[in-house]
Amino acid sequence: xxxxxxxxxxxxxxxxxxxxxxxxxxxxxxxxxxxxxxxxxxxxxxxxxxxxxxxxxxxxxxxxxxxxxxxxxxxxxxxxxxxxxxxxxxxxxxxxxxxxxxxxxxxxxxxxxxxxxxxxxxxxxxxxxxxxxxxxxxxxxxxxxxxxxxxxxxxxxxxxxxxxxxxxxxxxxxxxxxxxxxxxxxxxxxxxxxxxxxxxxxxxx
Length: 205
Hints:
It is a single chain. By secondary structure, the chain is an all-beta fold. Helix content is 0%, strand content 46%. The chain has strands at residues 20-25, 28-29, 36-42, 52-55, 58-59, 62-67, 70-74, 83-89, 92-102, 111-115, 127-133, 138-141, 157-160, 164-169, 172-173, 176-181, 184-188, 199-204. It is rod-shaped and about 110 Å long.
């Protein structure tokens, strides 16, 4: 009305800089999650407006605003070996692809670096102790008595899978291959002949 204030709307708009993620600390962690990931960047907000952080597609257990350049994420359980981090602050969202990896469930192929002996009688029966890496892959399982898990960190736990390691001298499998530890296997040699025969180890579930 006459003498009153009047607001005139124009077909223009103003935008603040978008959220930007530049680094993660650390950039690797265990599949069980539940550790703190520091997400670094810019434009996370001048005050705590409850930003939401995700690792790949899974929301952090909690997201804590520290400053306009730092948000802390309590990492959820996950399996990606090449995941990204995403932050949403207000209506703005920023991400950094392929910036984080969970530990791989699958260990390296069995390998050995040392033998206790390099030979024995043709009648066999002697022991060959192999020192190296003989680790079974881990798996996720529900706790005892539970039929399934909803994927929450307090429900799942790690178990070692059953794995059989078979050692062979040349083309002949050992009479027995005893797994002693993640770094040791003992082979009982069968009767045989030959020199400089290759020794090999195969892992099977």
